[in-house]
Amino acid sequence: MTRRTDWPGNASEGMDAEDSGSPAPSRAGKGLPPQDPGEQARAICLRLLTGTARTRKQLADALAKRGIPDDVSDEVLSRFEEVGLIDDAAFADAWVESRHHGRGLARRALARELRNKGVAPTLIEDAMGRLDSDQEEERARELVARKLRSTRGLERDRRLRRLAGMLARKGYAEGMALRVVRRALEEEGEAADDDLGYDPL
């Protein structure tokens, strides 16, 4: 499937005029019949997609909470996928790019977040392919360099634990975290002790 490069854009693009993002204004007060579940589902999805991309699972959960029948939900969500308003693959790619560069999260943490948002394992694997171990290690070094100053004055062991623990919480493997922190401390002139017994927690 060809991915849209402009999403999330105008959420009403590619939809019929009746699919506006605004909820139907007091239909009962105008003597109109109640809004049917399909119209409700489209309006809910359009509102949720305005300004922020979401996965199919996130939208399905939102529709279920509002009492939209499953068959109606599936039909509406499939239509949104057809016109490009839902694209879990593009969502995963954008999430990895944003969270890795913005918050410094490693592949393990990113994959966990995408799983929680209902992205399929194959799409997560594809998105993780955007990062390799060299990129991860470079980002880990940047994170450590940013925090290094705040640990000065502490004993080396406490510095190592604090900095490596910070990387562990962002999803970096223990081996990489220790390697990056040790190198940073050595470059500052700290003695390279044997850091056996390290516990990132």
Automatic annotation (TrEMBL):
Residues 136-178 form the RecX third three-helical domain. Keywords: Cytoplasm. Modulates RecA activity. It holds the Pfam family RecX_HTH1. It comes from Streptomyces flavidovirens. Residues 1-41 are annotated as: Disordered. Residues 41-79 form the RecX first three-helical domain. Belongs to the RecX family. This is Regulatory protein RecX. It is found in: Cytoplasm. Residues 87-128 form the RecX second three-helical domain.
